[in-house]
Amino acid sequence: MLPSSKRSSSSRERDLAPEGSPTVEDFKMLASLSLLPKPAWGLNRELQREVQVAVKIIVSKEISATTVFGALLTTRTVRHLVVHGAMPSTHIMPDTIGALELHRVPDGNIGMPQHLHSLTLVLPQGMGSAYAAAYLTMLPETVHSLALDASYCQANWTDLALPARLRTLQLTHLCELPALPASLTSIMLESCLFESPVQLPPSLTEASLVRTSCHADNYTRTSMAVLGPGLRRLRLMEIRPTWAVHLLPLGLTDLHINYEGSNWGHRVPVALTALPQSLQTLMISSRFQILQLTLSALPQSLRTLDATRSIVFNTALGPLPEGLTHLSLGGKLEHALRSLPAGLTELRVDGTFNQPLGALPPSLRVLDVNDCEYNLPLGRLPRTLRELRLGTAFNQPLLPLHTPLPAMQGQQAALPAHDAGLAEDPLQSVPDMTVLLPEALTVLHVGEAFDHPLGRLPESLTELRVGDFSRHGHRDCCFSHTLGPLPAALRILDLGVCAAYHHALGDLPDALRELRLGGAFHQPLP
Predict the structure, then answer these.
(1) What is the average per-residue pLDDT within 435-456?
(2) d(Cα 240, Cα 219) in Å, to the nearest integer?
(3) What secondary structure, in 3-state letters, does 355-384 show?
(4) Phi, psi torsion values for 216, nearest 5 degrees
(5) N or C: which end of the chain has fewer CB within 10 A?
């Protein structure tokens, strides 16, 4: 038995605990000081907001399970109750419980909390639709989320009556669907195989199919197992490349396709040739498999294109939509990109890509080529750029002209006048005395091969990393140039793999939380 309180965050759930507890305060302190391990850095903001603790209770044979379980529920602090296997018979089920999960619990006579909003039923082996119906008839009207898992049984589900006010439904290992309520807006089907595509009600706007398909004919299967005129978001997860993706809803705005992994060593051809013209987000990914992807003309409505994992583009992308704002490409992108859209704000490329990017858009905020072999000049950096991440192969100057650092420091008074002249053209060439990184820059990563001056660091910079300290088998980096005055906002300065860096750093900012220096550094620190 596992009583806990949970909330959903992105695609995963985290256990939470009461604000002010010692555990919460300890995690908050570690997060604020950036002392958590590197893989946990992304959780810092989450941990600072709220963390709650899940409690697992194991009852020994010498203790009455009914007594312990009853005492736990009488505390009225349980919000999310998870039960695996048999549960002690009890009539106490406090209304504070909002989410209930019953995993293969043989007893079907459990009183339901009156304010329950979410129920998960994993049916025991041998049980069928009658077992599920016994629970569904007891549900209060507050339930809006239901998950049924029939992995351990076979049953006819067509006559099962689902709650009338249901909004979210998850079904696992079914071959037919019960009647879906008109209130339903989201459905997930996992490991299901249908005889023909399922017609979804118009109320459904979101569908996720995980390892789910239907028969296209007597011999083949297709991944597109549902039809729905109201669908706006569709996720096809862990599908086989041989399953055709067609009959996409005409009003679809978000499409995410994830192909399952295999041990095949050769490239697997995949074609998406009928993309809806309403599409705004397209994500394509693959695990442990190289897909040779052919895309049809991209819809002009597209805003986000993400195809970074194990993807090989069979042909050039062609003209990119003018409204595209986020572009992520990778794998083995073997074609140069055509002119980038003027409104592009994020560009991320990984894999073996080493083709010219052309002129960077004036609105670009994120440029990330950290995980690819890119080593070509970037040209002039847009003034709007906030994050710049460059990979291990990159060794090109970031500044079009170089001025010795002392000379630059003596000419700072001239900067405002020159900045005023740049307002009309954010990509205008900068005179020698004012060669600068973009003033909006907050994150700068350069790889092991980089060995060029950075000039005066922007005052907005919060993170500067040279080399990749986290990469296994990293090699010492080449960077050996003096840094300008450290910005007051700088929180992270990582020169840990810089074997040749031995320049004085000057005053350290009060905001600094992490400082890493290489073995050659032998300068006094304030």
Answers:
(1) 89
(2) 15
(3) CCCCCCCCCCCEEEECCECCCCCCCCCCCC
(4) -75, -35
(5) C
**What residue type is assigned to position 199 of the chain?**
Q
Dump the DSSP string for 307-329: E-SSEEESS---SPPTT--EEEE
Cα separation, 377 vs 380, whole angstroms: 9
Burial pattern 18-47, b for ≥16 Cβ within 10 A else e, equals: eeeeeebeebbebbeeeeeeeeeeebbebb
Domain residue ranges in the chain: 17-51, 259-346, 375-406+432-526
CA within 13 Å, CB half, 424: 1
154-182 pLDDT, tens digit per residue, is 777 888 899 989 999 999 999 889 999 99
Strands in 113-267 per DSSP E: 118-122, 145-149, 168-172, 186-190, 193-194, 198-199, 206-210, 213-215, 221-222, 226-227, 233-239, 254-259
Q: Which tens digit of pLDDT belongs to each residue from 311-321?
A: 666 566 778 89
Which residue has 């939509």 as its token pair?
A: 321
Residues belonging to the chain:
526
Cα separation, 509 vs 287, in Å, equals: 43
Rounded CA gap, 40 and 67, in Å? Answer: 39
3-state secondary structure string, 472-519?
CCCCCECCCCCCCCCCCCCCEEEECCECCCCCCCCCCCCCCCEEEECC
3-class DSSP state of 147: strand
Beta bridge partners of 186: 168, 206
Query: Can you tell me the distance from the alpha carbon of 501 to that of 517, in angstroms, rounded to the nearest whole number?
Result: 8
Residue reference for tokens 């009338």:
164
> What mean pLDDT, rounded, does the chain reach?
78
Residue range 37-56: mean pLDDT, rounded: 56
Closest CA to 334 of 372, 288, 384: 372
Q: Cα separation of 21 and 450, whole Å?
A: 46
Q: Choose among 224, 235, 229, 230: nearest CA to 274.
A: 224
Residues in Cβ contact with 173 at an 8 Å cutoff, skipping those fewer than 6 apart: 149, 150, 151, 190, 191, 192
Q: Which residues of 255-292 are buried (b: 16+ CB within 10 A; e: fewer)?
A: bbbbbeeeeeeeebebebeebbeebbbbbbbbeebbbb
Q: What is the pLDDT of residue 149?
A: 93
The DSSP letter of residue 414 is G
Parallel, antiparallel or unpaired: strands 346-349 and 326-329 = parallel
Q: How far apart are CA 192 and CA 198, in angstroms?
A: 11
Tokens at 500, concatenated:
């040749």
Report which secondary-structure segment, H or E, holds 154. none
